[in-house]
């Protein structure tokens, strides 16, 4: 068989290939020749064939069929064969393949070889791909070589020991005696690998870390080595850009960081040398900057002196002026980590950080933006917001959402005045309204509502902001809401903060109608605009007929949400005109409540989404309709109908009908649920419109009394009594009056009573007389429940009580099944 081509010729041939297919053809042809040679056990050219196979492997072609040939080369006595064999083993084998276990004996023999280069090959291979089984078997040989006087072998043994510790951490103590004299070596290669080994041991074992701190006195040794490196003169063997062995310096600084973390004595011992490194290292070359960066990280991570921390932050400040983008990015990231602990020192570099907002690199921009927000405080809020608003105006779209959110949070926390706060948020909405978070609109509405003296100024500013431009939908939504609330102030021209503008009622309605028909308006924005027009029917006097016409037009809108609003508002004009002014009166001041979860706005006499009962005490006063969702906690079985509370200023009773579908077929008593009524026979007639549930007339006037009362609940000093009344003309309705009394020595505050009944009933819970149950039975809370029982079934109820008593939030559930027969038969 002819001799195979040499590796150099193979490389030259492959490089002449003009296409990928031509290269694949060459590789396949050569692989076939190599396989034939392997099958014939050709020992003469095995080394050459494996070398070519490794080159093909580097090009991405399969070479697994050469694994056993690598083992044969390792077993050879020739150094050239061993060298290629071990290289092939490191490239083609790993611990997932059982073949590698066959190498264990060869490596053990080579670790004891008389030639240091063969021992070095074995150490490199074991440190590269040795499995946990191989490491256990060969750890003893590695430990012996770690104690040898040969520097060439000691540095390789140290790196191999690192791999052994990573694979089998319990073998760590085996190498502890050998580490005692490693740092006394003058060879920099041994020093470097020794520091890597010590770092690995300290990171993996707290016991080792404590041992090296106390017993071995490792910190003074490292300080001595580092000082020698700094003070030593020029050494051509270790010099890199005028700095002596920067790689060793960086490794020592990292180990010092681990040793000094949360340890006062170790930190004290290394303060001086860190200061020397920080002041004596040349910064004109990247090598010096790398050492300074590691020094800064070490200073910030240990318990260093305040002056040393300021020095570290000043180094990072100098990094910000560097032309290298990577160094600027590293400096911004490091300052962002330290700004909370060393805020004043970082503040000194505020102008440089703000300048980084203008950088062309997006990564630097993002880090500079995050750091700028971290630097905002009450003293610099105006200047920083000016810069950040300028950045918001000119930055890329991917930054606008985060920047807008940061400005909102900073303005809410540090705003010097309400007018400044409102102006800032309006500027954000004008600049990046499409990118703000969903909660920006309700938060700004809450802010405007609470700034009573700013209403005229705000509505005028918002009116001018949306003239002819509806592109920023959140801004248009806030403007529509404010115009609906304070349109009378806009028309009257009462603004004192700036020159008032003259606006007529028709001009205001023109703007809102333009919002309704604009192609840029979303469904939510149109809802805001229609509601604003409806509110203006009580603020304006000359345009009520025009408002009626607009509302009636949208009663046939294809947008279901808009259609429902229009139909309800139209019904308000026609059937409940006497209630319109009360229903559309100006919103009261909103109370902002912070819970354990997200911030929510609680409206004192309007509707709001309920918060979980576990996160805050129940609010006093009338409970909004949507808090019927809290009755989900009351459900013990199936077939429950939720309570539908009714209050003069809350959502109408029938609106809670949507919750009937939410709770499905649940039975309170756990008994089998009754079969649902056919769709053609509704159990309870529902009013056609939401507003039909609002009636100024009582449900019935003729009352039958004489039904005995019951005690529904009595525990912890709280007593709940039920008294009953029935209607003569409508016997399906039962009126239950609850009376809550408190026999303890302290008042019960924030009292809330809730109830749930089976699905065959319908229940209305009216407003309570108070939210405080007086102590010593000196008074009671009364509340009326109306129950519709068309099928005359036995009445069952589950109640839920929440209140605050003696500084604690109380909550309890109870079932009431002892209703007198006269109350339901």
From TrEMBL:
Keyword vocabulary terms for this entry: Coated pit, Cytoplasm, Cytoplasmic vesicle, Golgi apparatus, Membrane, Protein transport, Transport
GO cellular component labels: AP-1 adaptor complex; clathrin-coated pit; perinuclear region of cytoplasm; trans-Golgi network
Pfam families: Adaptin_N, Alpha_adaptinC2
Chief localisation class: cytoplasm
Residue stretches making up the GAE domain: 705-820
Membrane-protein topology: Peripheral membrane protein
Stretches the record annotates as Disordered: 600-630
Subcellular localization, as worded in the UniProt entry: Cytoplasm, Perinuclear region; Cytoplasmic vesicle, Clathrin-coated vesicle membrane; Golgi apparatus; Membrane, Coated pit
Function (record text): Subunit of clathrin-associated adaptor protein complex 1 that plays a role in protein sorting in the late-Golgi/trans-Golgi network (TGN) and/or endosomes. The AP complexes mediate both the recruitment of clathrin to membranes and the recognition of sorting signals within the cytosolic tails of transmembrane cargo molecules.
Record protein name field: AP-1 complex subunit gamma
Gene: AP1G1
